[in-house]
Amino acid sequence: MDFFTNINVQFYILAYIIGGIPFGLILAKTFTGTNIKEAGSKSIGATNVLRVLKEKDPKLARKLAIATVILDALKGVVVILLAKAIGLSYAAQWAIAVLSVLGHCFSPFLKFEGGKGVATGVGVLLLMLPIETLLALVAWAITAKTTKISSLASLSGLFVLIISSFIIHPEIPHIKSHAPILLIAAIVVYKHIPNIVRLIKREEKAAV
Length: 208
What we know:
Radius of gyration: 17 Å
Order of helices and strands: HHHHHHHHHHH
Shape: globular
């Protein structure tokens, strides 16, 4: 029982559960009655929200996609800020960041399926590594603008974030390790494997 009364463990569980809330699915069902798990890429993320709903109502689709991005990004941020407010260690905050992304990608509410973790990852990393994440967002924006391929833009941003983190912070402050960043990257890349295969085959569709 001591395990579950540990404040760190409680926050880890909270991070995973909140991370698993499928906001894209909830918004799409609430406002359009559409189950995005059964359409498009079947992902719960903003890209699929936009892809599926724009056929019915482009204006509403954009609004719901933006709302999905914001809510998904805030999942981990809220828990980390709460953890920071009560004085949990930086190591605990990084663990919360990883578990928030893990919860989004393998949601306990969706039989451990979920989204690709990009928005949630951006949220937690913007809080923990703001400079590197801003550079990654610039890379994402440039790639999205030039290629119109969401997955390629996300993977490009992730690559820039990892490289810049090693350059700007050879040792991550307070924890002296890039392990949490690499774990988040591994989760996101794993969820993008089908996209990577299509990119290699030049079959990935423009979606941004």
